[in-house]
Amino acid sequence: MKKQIAVIGRDLHADNELLKEAEKVGRLIAEKGAVLICGGHGGIMRAAAKGAKSAGGITVGILPEVDKTKVNEYIDIAIPTGINQARNMTIALTADVVIALAGGVGTLSEMCFAYIYHKPIIALVGQGGWSEKLADSYIDEKRIVKIIPAHSAEEAVELASNVIETKKKTL
Fold first, then answer.
1. What structural domains does the chain harbor?
2. I want to staple 9 with a disulfide (CB 3.0 to 4.6 A). Which of 3, 64, 101, 131 is the partner?
3. pLDDT at residue 87, rounded to an integer
4. What's CA 8's distance to the chain center, in Å?
């Protein structure tokens, strides 16, 4: 089975620098042969999917609504859920590892679901948002998953790939 890496981050208010970094993350995920999982809409999700498609990758958008035509143009497989923001749990559960870029409250909820379900989380720092606030820490006192900081798209994807390979060896 192919590796599945989720890219999460803000839909709105992402500047060009952040979008370029997200696109690079998506491209690198595809170059590693992994499937890109995201929320299927705009901003970080669209940029990451665009990057993955530029490298011939497979993209999956897990949508909050029932109308799969709301998906961005770079998504290969649209999964309409009709469960609104509760779809964030599905994104976390679908991923082998999560890469977070910046992000607001939606990204925070995705990070929390990943944390609850013991999914490794890589947080790209330098762009603000919840990924930067939580990098190199635990979300709570349970200390389930330490959020791994990354300082570039290359480092984030390399860390994600290494975490998946390490997990495979321990199973």
1. 4-170 (3.40.50.450)
2. 101
3. 97
4. 4
